[in-house]
Write a structure and sequence with these properties.
Bound molecules: ligand MGD, iron/sulfur cluster, molybdenum atom
Strand content: 15-25%
Low-confidence stretches: none
Helix content: 25-40%
CATH topology of the largest domain: Rossmann fold
CATH class of the largest domain: Alpha Beta
Structural class: alpha/beta
Strand order of the largest sheet: 5-4-16-15-14-6-7
Shape: globular
CATH architecture of the largest domain: 3-Layer(aba) Sandwich
Distance between the termini: 58 Å
Largest sheet: 7 strands, mixed
Radius of gyration: 27 Å
Mean pLDDT: 95
């Protein structure tokens, strides 16, 4: 009998319910949980491919000290001893934890308790600083608490959904699909996308505002001024429930129309169209994500948006409100346990002496952090200058994801003591660890996560863990015990959850938003059976699932606050660095690729780091599509593939954040991002970086497929990606060489005695070499003086094809399939592995809608994440046919 387990997706903050099934043979399959209120059975491409990312390849399997196997006892004794020594010698602020919104709430709770209550420092910060801290700060300024007022249902009930700084189609695909379905059922629903790029999300937009980078504060100031003088203003709500309206309006009114046009880069008629749409639509939700948060004006952006909802009283009622889309699966849980350096547990305030004493009393702890600790960027500065002597990094990869990433790497290399808890052995960060601790991965661990709409769901283990891997909470609790602290005798995550729930209700009496007291005495069996629920969930009472519809904010006077914001200068370019670099995500990869990089299907969508460049900029820079481009800022440099596209605005380039030293030669984009932060939240400005670009010329360009993982020695450029049956690799070399055959032997691990088929043409520079053994392709290398045009996906398919027939082998040398074997082209639908050429063929045969293409090819019929791309291909083909 196959066993089914209900759990939660470990990727984005949508928090989809997943049913994992382990068959009798031990194979795992996943499907969406039809009963989970976040997704009602849907999953996106990443969720659907979860089963492909849980193998043990690359896992850290036992504790290591200085790169050598150690046992848990020795490793944790060393950690506890070193932390205690540093604290004794240099004080509590000489140690720090850098944790993650991908920890489970229980892990996070224990880490925060240890640092703030027992070590007595605020030095625990998290990658949520890079992700949600501007939203947290904006919420706290406006509401007096870090509260997301609405629910996902509001997005379906709304008549106007504004998506600003959010590429929802790729980053929160299941919410995107819920909105797309609602709009299909009720076409009067309007969608506005505000983003400098024309992203896939624009596929469902009625209006796309291609805003100038960081023009959002000005835009929403303009909107506030417009609303305030019109019929949508809700004077009753403003008077009864808010403060600060006139100051905010006075500040907003300082911008003239000409200045608005200049700051936002949007023509006046478009501004008016947007303002009128907002004004005339009562049921409006404004969703925002990293285009808002990751900015030097991130907190002001958040408050500029909230101001517009307060002035119209459109908050906390069905179908309306500001809506911060959380990134990570448990960024919200981390905020609930107070895992940021400037927060306290259970949404209490570190600034409040009363709250501090309350938490200390509850924990019966020897001390309590008296002041905020160092925020991420400052924390790594303190590591660099030696103030921090011991750092514990858990479930995050800062050498890739922190701004000024090369400096962060240098800092942790110089750190006297670095502990890393991860599931992979070789990450850009883990390779510098003095103590490396093997954590449990998704499918192995148990706990809870909170999604963007405050819904708490269980993650449940259903796989046997590697024997020596341990839960993150256990690692922290065990270290605390070894440091001599009482209060960490947890037997299971259920114990921790119960304590967390009890703290949320402790002396609360409605004074704090976060209250899950209903679960304060939960036992292991109930915890096992826990079904998804939304907070607040106070003991003994049903609570409303929206906030602030009737005021009830959490400032002492229970009123919400308008915040007077200013629209400062946003252009960071200079003569030396004339372009604006914007960074973010692609559909099928997750952050630093430690998990999605394992899936061939997910790696096939976009297999290389790239820079989106506007065609006009490309012409001026002498850059053609598919050539290599070098981007450089004052802080660092990358070399990536050029993707010339009109989706990009002039003067801007976009590079994904995912690639790192494990997958590419030089593509860690955060090496270019300066450590510039928002003054209120401390969140880095990752989306507005001054850079310059130039074409990177190489003597030879290459593409290869290989069964063994390639070791691309001497290549000035390389980008590896997993493929069915092996790997694919893009290459470039500064010099031609005579001995390509020897290079292949070393790079692809070709056994002695296997001779290549192919040729090397000195005149043209073309090289084609293929190696076969026992009727199978081992590796093939194609080189030429210009970027290689080869049928890449067809070549990849040859890794798993039969090559007993010698004639077929010559097709590989040619780099092209014979007429009988079509090339699928690059993957569009990763669920059914349908390539672009298959979709084009379907369109040419008369399928002119996404549904018709789906019937013909299956593409887009499972998770639906690629439907916008399919529509783009159909439109492209039809436009071409019409020319
Ligand atoms: N596929 C995938 N999904 C993910 C993740 C992933 O790694 N991969 N990560 C998850 C996490 S942790 C997060 S935080 C979320 C992030 O989700 P999103 O915030 O949606 O993703 P990003 O691509 O970082 O940025 C969103 C958009 O902001 C735009 N932008 C840049 N500057 C500005 C600006 O000044 N104003 C406006 N209005 N827009 C701007 C960018 O062009 C980009 O399209 O995604 C989550 N989901
Ligand atoms: N330029 C630029 N930089 C950015 C962003 C951007 O848009 N642009 N976005 C920022 C944002 S929003 C975010 S959220 C960050 C994300 O950046 P990171 O948090 O650095 O990225 P991840 O790859 O998610 O890192 C998670 C790590 O935890 C490990 N891991 C997985 N499961 C477990 C587990 O159960 N336990 C433990 N201990 N480890 C585990 C993984 O192998 C991986 O090494 O990047 C930020 N950096
Ligand atoms: S939208 Fe996709 S990545 Fe996000 S939780 Fe759902 S299945 Fe996972
Ligand atoms: Mo994030």
């Amino acid at each position: 009998m196959a066993a089914e387990t209900k759990t939660t997706c470990p990727y984005c903050g949508v928090g989809c319910g997943v049913i994992a099934t382990v068959s009798d043979r031990g194979t795992v399959s996943v499907k969406g949980d039809p009963e989970h209120p976040a997704n009602f059975g849907r999953l996106c491409s990443k969720g659907s491919a979860l089963a492909e990312t849980i193998d043990l390849d690359g896992r850290v399997l036992f504790p290591e000290i200085a790169g050598r196997r150690a046992d848990w006892n020795d490793a944790l004794d060393l950690v506890a001893r070193t932390l205690s020594q540093a604290i004794a010698e240099y004080g509590p602020d000489s140690v720090a934890f850098y944790v993650s919104g991908q920890l489970l709430t229980e892990d996070y709770y224990v880490a925060n308790k240890l640092m703030k209550g027992f070590i007595g420092s605020g030095n625990i910060d998290t990658n949520s600083r890079l992700c949600m801290s501007s939203s947290v700060a904006g919420h706290r300024r406006a509401f007096g608490s870090d509260t997301v007022p609405g629910t996902y249902e509001d997005l379906e009930l709304a008549d106007l959904v504004i998506l600003t700084g959010s590429n929802l189609a790729w980053c929160h695909p299941v919410i995107y699909q819920r909105i797309a379905s609602a709009k299909a059922a009720r076409p009067s629903m309007k969608i506005v996308v505000i983003d400098p790029r024309r992203t896939m999300t624009c596929d469902i937009a009625d209006l796309h505002l291609a805003i100038r980078p960081d023009g959002d504060v000005a835009l929403f100031m303009g909107l506030l001024a417009h609303l305030s003088s019109g019929p949508a203003v809700d004077h009753d709500y403003i008077t009864a429930h808010t403060q600060g309206f006139s100051e905010a309006l006075a500040a907003a009114s300082t911008l003239s129309l000409a200045e608005l046009v200049e700051r936002t880069g949007l023509p006046a008629p478009q501004l008016h169209q947007f303002f009128r749409l907002f004004e005339t639509t009562e049921n409006t939700v404004t969703c925002y994500s990293q285009g808002v948060n990751q900015s030097a004006s991130g907190t002001d952006k958040v408050n500029a948006i909230i101001n517009c909802h307060l002035v119209t009283g459109r908050i906390g009622r069905p179908g309306m409100g500001p809506f911060s889309l959380t990134g990570q699966p448990n960024a919200m849980g981390g905020r609930e346990v107070g895992g940021l350096a400037n927060m306290l547990a259970a949404h209490m305030a570190l600034e409040s002496a009363e709250d501090r004493l309350r938490v200390q009393r509850f924990w019966a702890s020897p001390t309590i952090a008296a002041k905020p600790g160092l925020k991420a960027v400052d924390m790594f500065r303190a590591v660099a200058d030696g103030r921090i002597k011991a750092l514990w990094v858990m479930a995050t990869n800062p050498v890739v994801s922190m701004p000024d990433a090369d400096a962060v790497e240098a800092a942790i290399k110089a750190c006297p003591f670095l502990v890393v808890s991860d599931i992979l052995r070789d990450t850009d960060t883990a390779r510098h660890a003095h103590v490396l601790l093997p954590s449990l991965g998704w499918g192995e661990k148990d706990g809870t996560v909170t999604n963007s709409e405050r819904r708490i769901s269980r993650q449940r283990g259903f796989l046997a863990a590697p024997p020596e891997a341990r839960a993150d909470w256990w690692q922290m609790a065990e270290t605390a015990r070894r440091m001599g602290f009482a209060g960490f005798d947890y037997r299971s995550p259920a114990d921790i959850f119960a304590e967390h729930a009890a703290l949320s209700a402790f002396e609360n009496h409605g004074s704090r938003d976060f209250d899950i007291g209903a679960h304060a005495s939960i036992g292991p069996a109930q915890y096992d059976a826990l079904t998804p629920f939304q907070w607040p969930a106070p003991a003994g009472g049903r609570a409303a699932n929206r906030f602030f519809g009737n005021g009830g904010f959490y400032h002492p006077d229970r009123k919400g606050r308008f915040i007077a914001v200013q629209a400062g200068a946003t252009d960071r370019t200079s003569q030396q660095y004339p372009l604006t670099l914007n960074t973010g995500r692609i559909r099928d990869h997750w952050h630093t690729m430690t998990r999605t990089g394992k899936s061939a299907r997910l790696s096939g969508h976009i297999a290389e780091p790239f820079a989106e460049i506007h065609p006009q900029d490309a012409v001026e820079l002498g850059i053609r599509d598919a050539c290599l481009v070098e981007l450089e800022s004052a802080h660092g440099k990358v070399v990536v593939r050029a993707l010339v596209t009109r989706r990009q605005a002039r003067g801007n380039v976009f590079v994904p954040m995912h690639w790192n030293d494990q997958f590419a030669a030089q593509a860690r984009i955060d090496a270019l991002v300066p450590p510039l932060t928002d003054p209120v939240s401390g969140q880095p400005a990752s989306k507005n970086v001054a850079v310059r670009a130039r074409r990177a010329r190489s003597a030879l360009y290459g593409f290869a497929v290989s069964v063994a993982k390639p070791v691309p020695n001497d290549a000035v450029y390389w980008a590896l990606a997993k493929a069915d049956g092996g790997w694919r690799v893009e290459l470039a070399f500064d010099e031609a060489r005579e001995d390509w055959s020897n290079w292949c032997r070393a790079a692809f691990g070709i056994p002695a005695g296997v001779e290549p088929l192919g040729y090397m043409d000195r005149h043209s520079g073309d090289v084609r070499l293929a190696y076969f053994q026992d009727g199978k392709l081992l590796a093939a290398l194609l080189l030429s003086r210009e970027p290689v045009a080869a049928a890449r996906n067809w070549l990849i398919a040859q890794l798993t094809a039969d090559h007993s027939d010698l004639r077929k082998r010559f097709a590989i040398v040619a780099g092209r399939p014979g007429a009988d074997q079509p090339d699928p082209g690059s993957t569009v639908c990763s669920c059914f592995s349908v390539g672009v050429n298959g979709i084009v063929a379907a369109v040419r045969s008369g399928c002119h809608s996404v549904e018709a293409v789906g019937r013909e090819t299956n593409a887009g019929t499972n998770c639906g994440s690629c439907r916008a791309e399919i529509r783009g291909i159909i439109d492209g083909c039809l436009a071409q046919a019409a020319e």
